[in-house]
Amino acid sequence: MKRSLFFLLGVGFMILTAGSPAAYQIGDTVGDFKLKNIDGKTVALSDYKNSKGVIIIFDCNTCPYSKAYTERIIALDKKYDSQGFPVVAINANSPEISPGDSFDEMVDRAKKKNYTFPYLVDETQGVAKAFGATNTPHVFVVVREGQDFKLAYIGAIDDNTRDGSQANKKYVENAVEALLAGKPVETPKTKAIGCGIKWKNS
Amino acid sequence: MRATILFLLLSLNVAFSQEVPIVKFDRLEKLMQTKSEKIQVINFWATWCAPCVAELPLFEKLNAAQSEKVKVTLVNLDYADQINKVKGFVSRKKMKSDVLLLDEIDYNSWIDRVDTRWQGAIPATLIINTSTGQRKFIDREVKEGELESIIAELK
């Protein structure tokens, strides 16, 4: 009896956790993370205690949408790093599923494209899961309030996956500009179109 | 003589290889909304998406086996300037289902109209019984036999 009760509790717990996504919502304080950068050093979100915020982008080497957005991601860092909103890119793809996303390939891509920002490995995929990242590229803009980083924007970079110069709505730029001006973000949530993150086989 | 036959065969092959029209979302919306006897099976894929390419044979098999009851439409999401690559792929794989290239790059303007649960990754598949309004959305790869059992369910 006792055992079956435990079993039922266990099943109930599983259903509960499966049914309620733990992912952060707009306005939530996000947890700190520490991940390995392509230079071998560790980068933590808490390292950005002097920034106004951070543009966190789940990205990868291999997805055609990521490739189409690479120059725009570099441009975001060029434009906003100096204004206190640097880019931090995170690759959560399992290199077993997507060999083009191995650590060495990440180092290579960052070098070739002259990344001016960290490109971190989310080896356990725990950070991607905590943020509720599903695709690449998938952007999460956080704004610093004291010690905390609060989620202010989730979604796509802009409304034109193919050509940034043709984009009518620059979601991330608009969000960061609003945050810099101390205004509410007009469109805090869009859908990030892209390739699904390559999850490990569990 | 042999050369002529070869030539004829080649030209037949060209004649039968299907067109891949470049369409806007309204074409797709029509497919989803127009009442039809057939169950609509709409799959979103791209040539660069390995899991999508891997599951295409399941849709081709369904199309071949149940074409009187089911209408399969394979909606390609490669960029429109890649149309020749897509056409080459379709003819190389001898695909028989309808293939459309959807040229709508502002995804946020249309993906919720396919299904609000769709987060924007492919493969994704929508199965609709347009006469009853029943629908099923799958935002991952389909498994062998899964399409057939969903279709039986929606009939």
What does this structure look like?
The complex is a heterodimer of chains A (202) and B (155). Chain A is of the alpha+beta class and 202 residues long. Chain A has a single domain (23-196), classed as Glutaredoxin (3-Layer(aba) Sandwich), CATH 3.40.30.10. Chain A has helices at residues 2-19, 64-80, 103-112, 126-131, 171-180; strands spanning 34-37, 42-44, 53-58, 87-91, 119-121, 135-136, 138-145, 148-155, 195-196. In chain A, the strands form 2 sheets. Chain A has a 7-stranded mixed beta sheet, covered by helices on one side. Chain B is α/β, with parallel strands linked by helices. Chain B has a single domain (19-154), classed as 3-Layer(aba) Sandwich (Glutaredoxin). Helices cover 41% and strands 21% of the residues of chain B. Chain B is built from 6 helices and 6 strands, in the order H-E-H-E-H-E-H-E-H-E-E-H. Chain B has helices at residues 2-16, 25-33, 50-66, 83-92, 111-114, 146-154; strands spanning 22-23, 39-45, 70-76, 98-102, 124-129, 134-138. In chain B, strands 1-4-3-2-5-6 form a 6-stranded mixed beta sheet. In chain B, strand 5 and strand 6 (134-138) form a beta hairpin. Chain B is globular, with a radius of gyration of 16 Å. The model of chain B has no long low-confidence stretch (mean pLDDT 90).
Condensed summary:
Chain A is an alpha+beta fold. Chain A has helices at 2-19, 64-80, 103-112, 126-131, 171-180, and strands spanning 34-37, 42-44, 53-58, 87-91, 119-121, 135-136, 138-145, 148-155, 195-196.
Structural class of chain B: alpha/beta
The assigned structural class of chain A equals alpha+beta
Multimeric state? heterodimer
Tell me the CATH architecture of chain A.
3-Layer(aba) Sandwich
Major beta sheet, strand line-up of chain A: 2-1-5-4-3-7-8
DSSP helix fraction of chain A? 25-40%
Mean pLDDT of chain A: 91
Straight-line N-to-C gap of chain B: 52 Å
Short key terms for the protein model shown above:
heterodimer; A: 202 residues; Glutaredoxin; 7-stranded mixed beta sheet; two-stranded antiparallel ribbon; 5 helices; 9 strands; 30% helix; B: 155 residues; alpha/beta; 6-stranded mixed beta sheet; 6 helices; 41% helix; globular
